[in-house]
Amino acid sequence: MRFSGFKVIKEALMGHKGWGPQWRNPEPKSHYDIIIIGGGGHGLATAYYLAKEFGQKNIAVLEKGWIGGGNVGRNTTIIRSNYLLDGNEPFYEFSLKLWEGLEQDFNYNAMVSQRGILNLIHSDGQRDAFMRRGNGMILNGADAEYLTADQIRAENPFLNFDDARFPIKGGLAQRRGGTVRHDAVAWGYARGADQRGVDIIQNCEVTGLRIENGVCKGVETSRGFIGANKVGSCVAGSSSRIMAHANIRLPIESHVLQAFVSEGLKPTIPGVITFGAGHFYVSQSDKGGLVFGGDIDGYNTYAQRGNLPTVEDVCESGMAIMPMIGRSRMLRMWGGVMDMSMDGSPIIDKTHIDGLYFNGGWCYGGFKATPASGWCYAHLLAKDEPHKVATAYRLDRFKRGYMIDEKGMGAQPNLH
Ligand SMILES: Cc1cc2nc3c(=O)[nH]c(=O)nc-3n(C[C@H](O)[C@H](O)[C@H](O)COP(=O)(O)OP(=O)(O)OC[C@H]3O[C@@H](n4cnc5c(N)ncnc54)[C@H](O)[C@@H]3O)c2cc1C
Question: How many angstroms separate the alpha carbon of residue 236 from the centre of ligand 1?
Answer without folding.
Answer: 5
